[in-house]
Amino acid sequence: xxxxxxxxxxxxxxxxxxxxxxxxxxxxxxxxxxxxxxxxxxxxxxxxxxxxxxxxxxxxxxxxxxxxxxxxxxxxxxxxxxxxxxxxxxxxxxxxxxxxxxxxxxxxxxxxxxxxxxxxxxxxxxxxxxxxxxxxxxxxxxxxxxxxxxxxxxxxxxxxxxxxxxxxxxxxxxxxxxxxxxxxxxxxxxxxxxxxxxxxxxxxxxxxxxxxxxxxxxxxxxxxxxxxxxxxxxxxxxxxxxxxxxxxxxxxxxxxxxxxxxxxxxxxxxxxx
Length: 273
Hints:
Blueprint (H helix, E strand, L loop, with lengths): L4 E2 L3 E11 L6 E11 L8 E11 L2 E8 L2 E8 L5 E6 H4 L5 E8 L2 E7 L8 E5 L6 E5 L7 E10 L2 E10 L4 E9 L8 E6 L2 E8 L2 E7 L6 E5 L6 E4 L10 E8 L2 E8 L3 E7 L2
Antiparallel strand pairs: 1-4, 2-3, 4-5, 5-6, 6-7, 8-9, 9-10, 10-11, 12-13, 13-14, 14-15, 16-17, 17-18, 18-19, 20-21, 21-22
């Protein structure tokens, strides 16, 4: 679960202005940017940009973390005036970390994590950023390290994957859960994969999952109902050395996915779905 990390500098997009190209004689809309805060800001650490920046109840929320602080979320209405919304211990005093976050059916969900591994990951939600409810706890076979991964919304249901790692036997599997309401007791397992789920995407009415560090290379799977799955590729697009997968992106009627080849090459694979 690689996270994209940026040094604490957030730029606020203020407006779009027209610029004229002398050579082509065409008007081009270019963005103008204003620095909102930098390393002299009141924020306690680094900004984290992977599933931890979102809009909720008229405010924008960002997550911050650091070596000597607990994970925190700060929010703003105007991009300039910021306030601490919550930190991990304010939700549950046993936890110092959380990731990721998502808004589903007008409530904000996040995963609480214990860096020491003493407590199981749990999904919590809030209707207002203040009152929190635990809706699911990561559970797996005895002796396995278990944790929640990334959220995804598909066909009106909230999905999340659950990783099971048997450190003694170096065995890893991931399980896909979903809920139509997010309520406690409503979560069900709908799929199991033999290697780590890394990326989600929706494309042409299907849910796509990219799995990496598989024995024969990256795997891409898709489903039209979230329960029945078919393989797009199970061998890194005929290149087993393509072991890691990045994010999906859609453009021009194609679904793209980035692949990484630790043996010295990189490749990108487009697909029509």
